[in-house]
């Protein structure tokens, strides 16, 4: 699963027995490895990648009841990195058909109850990081079909694929602005991983963060006022906030453990993320007023 570990593999998954901050709310307690959180448009669920009993699958967390529901379970390969369609009825995700050393990565869709899995982007190279546009008409994804990780745009049907980024360094982890006019992404084009922003047609690329540490996994708040991202600039992996103009950088997790894979609540007032602060990989929520 080369695409899955492209940046996650650079993170130290050191566990900690540190108690979590009192300002956090803990949503899971099983400790299984978790990644790629995505809060549902109606605010009631979080979909995520989980390794449970040796299988990597998509799971739903029902926030009110804390119930976990498995959405996918294959013997032919893992499913991971889910993203919601804006109506909350479907998900896009990556399926890795195990074959050889890395497998074949496809982008699939399925209904939010786990039914009707359908190929959206057939395997041509590593196809990963699917993100549906706010109006539900387009899909961002990352592919190595032209040699290295680049960002592509397609119709939501998977047709009319066109390349948005074009650089010798890898570009990955795209996310839409709420108005669909801009795209934030992680890129190593500056010599290390930073957060960049470009227009939805790939024009006017500009650097949002500028630090020798690793910055990755940007997620735009639904109200458009802030982005969250992961960085190890303070020595361990934390969740940071920043405004779209590059100001008001703020460490929101402040933990000695490992935090990653942030996702915004629909009202932009809370962030959920994965942390190892209690000894396993669990989901926590923090207020972001």
From TrEMBL:
InterPro entries: 6-blade_b-propeller_TolB-like, WD40. SUPFAM superfamilies: DPP6 N-terminal domain-like (SSF82171). Belongs to the TolB family. Pfam families: PD40 (PF07676). It comes from the Bacteria. This is TolB protein. It comes from uncultured Planctomycetota bacterium.
């Amino acid at each position: 699963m080369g695409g899955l570990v492209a940046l996650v593999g650079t993170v130290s998954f050191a566990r900690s027995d540190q108690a979590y901050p009192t300002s956090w709310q803990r949503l899971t307690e099983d400790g299984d490895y978790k990644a790629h959180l995505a809060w549902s448009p109606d605010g009631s669920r979080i979909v995520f990648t989980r390794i449970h009993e040796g299988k990597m699958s998509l799971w739903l967390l029902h926030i009110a009841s804390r119930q976990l529901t498995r959405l996918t379970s294959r013997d032919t390969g893992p499913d991971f990195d889910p993203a919601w369609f804006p109506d909350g009825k479907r998900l896009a995700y990556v399926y890795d058909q195990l074959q050889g050393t890395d497998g074949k990565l496809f982008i699939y869709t399925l209904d939010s109850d786990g039914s009707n899995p359908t190929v959206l982007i057939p395997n041509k190279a590593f196809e990963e990081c699917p993100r549906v546009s706010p109006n539900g008409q387009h899909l961002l994804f990352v592919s190595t079909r032209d040699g290295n990780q680049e960002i592509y745009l397609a119709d939501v049907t998977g047709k009319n694929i066109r390349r948005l980024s074009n650089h010798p360094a890898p570009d990955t982890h795209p996310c839409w602005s709420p108005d669909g006019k801009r795209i934030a992404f992680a890129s190593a084009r500056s010599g290390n991983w930073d957060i960049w922003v470009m227009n939805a047609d790939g024009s006017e690329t500009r650097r949002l963060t500028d630090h020798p540490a690793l910055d990755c996994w940007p997620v735009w708040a639904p109200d458009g006022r802030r982005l969250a991202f992961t960085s190890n600039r303070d020595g361990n992996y934390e969740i940071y906030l920043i405004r779209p103009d590059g100001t008001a950088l703020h460490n929101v997790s402040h933990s000695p453990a490992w935090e990653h894979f942030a996702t915004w609540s629909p009202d932009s007032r809370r962030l959920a993320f994965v942390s190892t602060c209690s000894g396993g990989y669990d989901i926590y929520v923090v207020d972001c007023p």
